[in-house]
Amino acid sequence: MSCPDPVFEAPWHAQLFALTVHLHAQGTFDWPAWTEAFGATLAEHRLSGDLNGGDDYFTAWLATLERLLDANNMAPPAAVEATRDAWKQAYLSTPHGDPVRLS
Amino acid sequence: MPHDTHDHPHALLPPDPALRVRALETILTEKGLIDPAALDEIIDTYEHKIGPQNGAKVVAKMWTDPAFREAMLTDPMPLLDEMGFYGRQGEHMVIVENTPQVHNVVVCTLCSCYPWPLLGIPPGWYKSDAYRARVVREPRAVLAEFGVTVPADKKVRVWDSTAEIRYLVVPERPAGTEGMTVAELEKLVSRNSMIGTALATEPTT
Known about the structure:
The complex is a heterodimer of chains A (103) and B (205).
Chain A: H1 11-25, H2 31-46, H3 55-71, H4 77-93
Helix pairs in contact in A: 2-3
Chain B: H1 16-30, H2 36-49, H3 52-64, H4 66-74, H5 77-82, E1 93-97, E2 102-107, H6 116-119, H7 124-127, H8 129-137, H9 139-145, E3 155-160, E4 166-170, H10 182-186, H11 191-195
Parallel strand pairs in B: 1-4, 2-3
Helix pairs in contact in B: 3-4, 8-9
């Protein structure tokens, strides 16, 4: 216990985890529905090789959340792609050290 | 971690999944469906307030307080609630006790269900396919890889978590700890010992 592992390996793991927990708390989905959907994604992703429980685990988590948010029309894929591209552009056009914001 | 030099002309581009998570947050925030401040609070809670130290408190108290132990084994929820360890993904806890006859170990074969209020966020290996698939098939071999050798005459029981039911293993109290305080005992209870992939730490003399 003297040298505990970091709780989240990457900041986006933490963001994704928090987003999911928050959506669940708001009643967007119940937890059994989440685990069932997540289990199915993990099984799919496993077809291309064993998952190590790190990045690949949260990649499957993200795919599950995107699917659920698409299914209930909260975040359609086209909007996600467009907003993702906008964030990418924002990062590429913001001088290093400045806070990155969507224009 | 991204390197931290200052010769980048622009802000360091996060990996694609990070941008996608950002995009979801943006869309849901703009629609008024989520509160970004709530997300920060959740992260802070899981990074700083919830972790195996909670489970260790339960275990050490069970070692030292027979009435509490009895209650935890039969109906743990009221007392966990009282201790402040009730919460999401810990609504239906089952406490399983290691004995000289039985060693318990916990897995989630479906995804990675885990008793968050008592142990925090699961470690990478708990979420790996290697652990999730193998501990059911050959628990003794997996435990041996963790450095836990279970004698042949001791049973190994594997508990598969579900979306509803989560398990906490109570490791056996090590010998030579009779005079220790509850606070000292808590330090002997590691995260892995409460999953079942370790024993309680022997006290240093």
